[in-house]
Write a structure and sequence with these properties.
By secondary structure, the chain is α/β, with parallel strands linked by helices. The protein is 36% helix and 14% strand. It is built from ten helices and ten strands. The strands form two sheets. Strands 1-2-3-4-5-6-7-10 form an eight-stranded parallel barrel, surrounded by six helices. β4, α4 and β5 form a beta-alpha-beta unit. α4 packs across α5. The longest helix is centred in the C-terminal third of the chain and has 20 residues. It is globular and about 55 Å long. The chain starts with 23 loop residues before the first strand and ends with a helix.
Length: 325
């Protein structure tokens, strides 16, 4: 499959001023692969931290699970940490102040000194936390409801809040527009930002009739992108899944080149998972898995450096400063 993007204008596309300080290329710090993947050996510009994986239980006294405060301190000595919230129930229907986002993720993001926070755009409440691909309803009423929650949540965080687009298999009933238009209107109304998952767009373009990656990227406001996800997936029973268990597809790299030519995100983060959200997925850690992750990191850095120059990445700037000192 090829993504139909107009790459002829990439070199002359004008990039907007960055919303946040550019860091560069990073990897998501996922505890699921800690037993075999050497995060400490990665020469990356930042780590993205899943707040859900390190937060203490809501009915307990601890902000972080035991042992993770020390791990986060060790990582922070290497490079900046960036917060990512999945199951914060941000877009659910319960009171915002009672959600994990406000009670745990807000103080955690501040504790990590994160420059921004990304949140996954799907429904979630106490009884829905096992539902992964549950996209919100792309309707005018939900724009109004969610824009109010998003604006208030960004105020709680005290930093840019960037919404991540979802991979899904069926749209929520009652929608009145495409996801890209919904996101564009949401961030305009709320004053929040975008975290664009390019692999989710790729997966949806395969699985959903009429879903165009090109139209999607031409609809969302690229100047409001704060951060980006890239990943790989797998086929299972005729469906392509966002399982984070394989190398990044060439089509996703093409989209990254296209977006970086037209935006100034703070970072691009690669995602990998121990075992994804289905019992039939393979458990990563096999021979060759570490090698393809390292290759993906090299490719991502080369694309970033082509767009902005290597001196724009945190690790490169840090090396320069250390050399001068």
């Amino acid at each position: 499959m090829s993504i139909d993007l107009d790459m002829t204008r990439t070199a002359v596309a004008r990039q907007p001023a960055p919303v946040v300080e550019p860091l560069g290329i990073g990897i998501q710090y996922n505890p699921e692969i800690l037993d075999w993947f050497p995060f400490d050996e990665c020469d990356v510009d930042a780590f993205e931290v899943l707040l859900d994986s390190i937060m203490g239980a809501l009915d307990g006294p601890y902000l972080m699970l035991p042992g993770f405060a020390e791990r986060m301190q060790d990582l922070a000595r290497k490079c900046p940490l960036v917060a990512h919230s999945n199951y914060g129930c941000d877009f659910g229907f319960g009171p915002l102040e009672e959600t994990p986002a406000v009670r745990r993720h807000v103080p955690l993001a501040k504790k990590l000194n994160s420059p921004w926070v990304a949140n996954h755009m799907f429904y979630g409440d106490d009884s829905w936390l096992d539902i992964w691909s549950s996209p919100v309803q792309f309707s005018h009423a939900e724009i109004d409801r969610l824009a109010d929650r998003a604006r208030r949540l960004q105020e709680y965080y005290g930093m840019p809040l960037a919404h991540e687009n979802a991979a899904y298999y069926l749209p929520c009933p009652g929608g009145e527009m495409e996801e890209a238009e919904f996101l564009a209107r949401l961030v305009e109304k709320s004053g929040t930002y975008l975290h664009v998952d390019l692999h989710n767009i790729y997966a949806n373009s395969i699985n959903l009739d009429g879903f165009s990656a090109r139209n999607y990227l031409n609809t969302i406001p690229l100047d409001r992108i704060v951060s980006i996800h890239v990943a790989g997936g797998s086929w299972h029973e005729g469906v392509y899944h966002d399982w984070h268990d394989s190398p990044v597809p060439d089509e996703v790299w093409q989209m990254l080149e296209y977006v970086l030519a037209r935006s100034r995100p703070g970072g691009v983060f690669l995602e990998y998972q121990g075992q994804a959200h289905h019992p039939d997925t393979r458990i990563m850690g096999e021979e060759g898995d570490k090698d393809f992750i390292m290759r993906d990191l090299e490719i991502a850095m080369s694309i970033w450096d082509k767009a902005y120059g290597p001196e724009s990445r945190f690790s490169t700037r840090k090396q320069v400063l250390e050399t001068v000192a």
